[in-house]
Amino acid sequence: MGFFSKIKEGLAKTRNNISNQLHGMFDSFTGANDEFFDELEETLILADVGVEIATESVDKLREIVKKNGIRGGEDIKKELENILTEIVTFEDNSIKVDTKPSIILVIGVNGVGKTTTIGKLATRYVKEGKKVLLCAGDTFRAAASEQLSIWAQRAGADIVKHEEGSDPGAVIFDGIAAAKARGADVIICDTAGRLHNKQNLMNELAKINRIIDRELPGAARENLLVIDATTGQNGLIQAKQFSNAANITGLVLTKLDGTARGGIVFAVCGELSIPVKLVGVGEKAEDLIDFDGTDFVRALLDE
Length: 303
Ligand SMILES: Nc1nc2c(ncn2[C@@H]2O[C@H](COP(=O)(O)OP(=O)(O)OP(=O)(O)O)[C@@H](O)[C@H]2O)c(=O)[nH]1
Ligand SMILES: [Mg+2]
What we know:
Blueprint (H helix, E strand, L loop, with lengths): L2 H8 L1 H16 L6 H13 L4 H17 L5 H16 L13 E6 L6 H14 L4 E6 L4 H14 L2 E3 L7 H15 L3 E6 L6 H18 L5 E8 L4 H13 L4 E5 L9 H9 L3 E5 L7 E3 L2 H9 L2
Parallel strand pairs: 1-4, 1-5, 2-3, 2-4, 5-6, 6-7
Antiparallel strand pairs: 7-8
The structure holds guanosine-5'-triphosphate and magnesium ion.
The site of magnesium ion (MG) has 5 residues, from helix 6.
């Protein structure tokens, strides 16, 4: 399946919601009046675009429409598309894996899809001919490293793991040493989503980051924050907390297939100013898509 149809399919529920609503509005378009703009704002908010970004976008649209004397519904829709695309477009949203080894740290609260995303990424890189090493940094739950092992086996990746309850920093340290010794191209580290309290979690992430700084200076490095799209504005609040504690280089928005409120993409990009780099649209290895803002908006608004 091509990229565009895949994202379109992943957005099916959101399209049923926001897209149908928007199409209805533009189909029965009678003029760019207050009523129209209010309804548009409401539609965006209901799709989880977030009050702040929805208001900003509609204000901007109003201004452009007025300034340029735009009358036609199709032309207004085009302007809306431009405004939305701009919010989710960043200079570069590719994942940097161009040093040997490079390292990707995957973080986020429990259940958002970290381990699954790692499995999908490992599958992708192995297919590209890279030697991948997974690091089971979630030592909090016994089942966590088991789950990662299954993904490693399926993908054809190596894995470094320790016993439950051991120090995640030590696992990462060993993982890096093993990657150097075995000539791995990419190290992908899982982390715990749940520790006894938030301060614990943040301290642990800081420690892991220090170890990576020390052991892999100059390596291409990603700190990916995973957000579950189905949790809506809650996910956004979590993301804000994480971005205060770690230098997040990119976001992964999972379970986009399971929500009608995919508008959350605009809220996270707009409010955090961090690029979404990947989206998850299912539980299988191939259900991971490189995010592209233009295609995303087109998939959302196209008939
Ligand atoms: N539909 C759908 N399900 C997903 C997606 N990504 C992950 N999941 C499911 O979400 C659940 C949690 O995924 P995990 O990868 O275990 O999440 P985690 O963040 O590692 O969780 P913890 O290790 O408990 O912190 C699993 O049932 C996954 O199959 C996605 O893009 N779409
Ligand atoms: Mg996990």
